[in-house]
Amino acid sequence: MDLKLYCPEKLVSPEAAVRNIKNGSRVFVGTGCGEPQRLIKAMVGNRLVQDIVIYQMLSWTFAQYMDDDDFLDRFSLKLFFISYYMRQATFEGKIDYIPVYLSQIPELFASKEIGLDVALVQVSPPDRFGFCSLGISVDITLSGMQNAKMVIAQINPEMPRTWGDSLVHVDELDFLITHKEPLLEALPESKNQEVIKRIGHYIQQLVDDGATLQIGFGHLPDAVVSYLSDKKDLGMHTQVLTDGLLPLFEKKAVTNRKKTLLPGRVVASLCMGSRKLYDYVDNNPMFYFRSSEFVNDPNVIAKNDNFISISSALEVDLTGQICSDSKDYLFYSGIGDQVDFIRGSSMSKGGFSIIVIPSTAENGKVSRIVPHLSEGAGVATTRGDIDIVVTEYGIAELRRKSIYQRVIELAQVAHPKFRQSLIEEAKKRRYIFGDQLPPTTDDLMFLDVYKHSNTFANDTTIEFRPLLPSDEFETRHFFYSLQEETIYGRYFYKRKVFSREMLQKQWANVDYRRNMSIIGFRQVGRSKQIVAIGSYSECEKDKAEVAFLVKEDLQGLGIGTYLLEILEIIARENGYKGFVATTLTQNKKMIRVFQKQFPNLTTENTGSGEIEIDMMFE
């Protein structure tokens, strides 16, 4: 469309356009990398423009003016989220932060709870029918534009055309300026690559093929998702698209085929990244841009089965409270999309949320897992909403767990040098028992090679991994679920009580080298149920005593044999030459398992109804 022929009266210079802004106006400005830089500069440059209130989601260009002598006399900035570039100005009290869920902001404009006189937006050139595109910034920009009394648009050929609710006709725009300039780019910060690699390793274990993902604001979620590029048929329903997602698109890890809401489409609200990302979404029908009241609505999110929200935090306390928008009394970012997506994921069939967080800050001087949030820190996500926390030291599962269990889970994934102090602080607050043993201070990432999954007869899939302190409660349930005969066959007497003290000592004595315990568990709904335990412990210089227990309804499937194979591999790695075992003479099932694995074993009858078995590794 030739605008000079269609609406010549709307085409003006930037300076002429901003002269239509009256003093005292409430002005909305488009979001982040889609903000109209040339219009902002023209408005700030007009000294006659006074007493303006600015509403914006993510602000970049205004950061250039925060230290100017009279800028704050002329403009008052009210931001829904604090970008990196505006952080220092916020710390200095130059910005007013509005804490509100992102899904609710468009309604604030529509209901006139926040009235808008002017909207400054950036759009692509119109097509032959007169439709421009909001491109990479639909989020709250669409509502801001629709509910302002006057709209001034910067037409920039650099703005991509995106599919979805991004279209706006030139008839809806009051003034137009044409100005080509590079879009703002949000390039990833250089961070600790080892931490990113380790967290990415754990995220890879949690995300199954076919899941639908949301990736939150922040460099860490953006960085770790590249470790999902080998997954299959992932879907995407997220507020923001970043460069971290490009490997998933390019390697076809994201196909959106398995999505239950808008299959085949990546649903998003805005892009913040490089020119490469902007070119990728340009006129690409796979990307479906909608405004934030749709994309961030928990009820909409929940329509995606197997939905996984991945976001970050500044601090996590031992009860599971999350701070993501402030450091002490200083506002640092914003509530943004975290709560919307966490609640949506909790309502999704098979869905859950993940908080990714490095274990330490300030070059390892302070722990990010803390006994209590810092004074002044805001609770963005409550302890009732949290599911999983991942650090570079492992996975803490908090969903529906007690404070006692949460303390153990979180201390287990804290930096080793802070684990004991966290346990001591938890004792002072009466979160845990006074005799609670702290987790080991070893870095247990090496245990990941001992994680296995196997499908047995009747399509019974069992997951295997080393025993952890956080397994204390499930181990207790396992022992009490066993029949008296099974217990007698393992302990040679009718054991009635499996006390907390006994179970604590069991995991505390596991050093994962001289002593090892492997649990087998299966998924039952959202919970994991232990169904088997196998252990060895050093009894001679080059031999270890071995034993195992399998739940009665799963005996005979080969689970005991599989446990024995895993334990042998680990024992060999730690220098052992064989196993020994003591069992009851009538325990034919266990003896057969040993014979199957070690055909050359030798036995000795003790004469007291027990048999000692010696099994040398080949």
Rg over alpha carbons:
30 Å
Query: How many E-type strands?
Result: 35
Percent helix, as a range, is 25-40%
How much of the polypeptide forms β-strand, as a percent range? 15-25%
How does the major sheet shape up? 8 strands, mixed
CATH-level-4 superfamily name of the largest domain: Acetyl-CoA hydrolase/transferase C-terminal domain
Q: What is the second-level CATH architecture of the largest domain?
A: 3-Layer(aba) Sandwich
Using brief descriptors, characterize the structure shown.
618 residues, alpha/beta, Glutaconate Coenzyme A-transferase, Aminopeptidase, 3 domains, 8-stranded mixed sheet, 27% helix, 25% strand, elongated
How would the blueprint of this fold be written?
Layout: H1 3-6, H2 14-18, E1 26-29, H3 37-45, E2 52-56, H4 71-74, E3 75-79, H5 87-91, E4 96-97, H6 105-110, E5 116-123, E6 131-133, H7 141-146, E7 148-155, E8 163-164, E9 167-169, E10 175-178, H8 193-206, E11 212-215, H9 219-224, E12 235-236, E13 240-241, H10 246-250, E14 266-268, E15 270-271, H11 275-281, E16 287-289, H12 292-295, H13 298-301, E17 307-312, E18 315-317, E19 322-323, E20 326-327, E21 330-331, H14 338-347, E22 352-356, E23 360-361, E24 366-367, E25 369-370, E26 388-391, E27 394-397, H15 403-413, H16 416-428, E28 452-456, E29 460-466, H17 472-481, H18 484-491, H19 500-508, E30 515-524, E31 527-538, E32 543-550, H20 559-573, E33 578-584, H21 588-597, E34 602-605, E35 610-616
Parallel strand pairs: 1-2, 1-5, 2-3, 3-4, 5-7, 7-10, 8-16, 11-12, 11-17, 13-15, 14-16, 17-22, 18-25, 22-26, 32-33
Antiparallel strand pairs: 6-9, 18-19, 20-21, 23-24, 26-27, 28-29, 29-30, 30-31, 31-32, 33-35, 34-35
Helix pairs in contact: 15-16, 17-19, 20-21
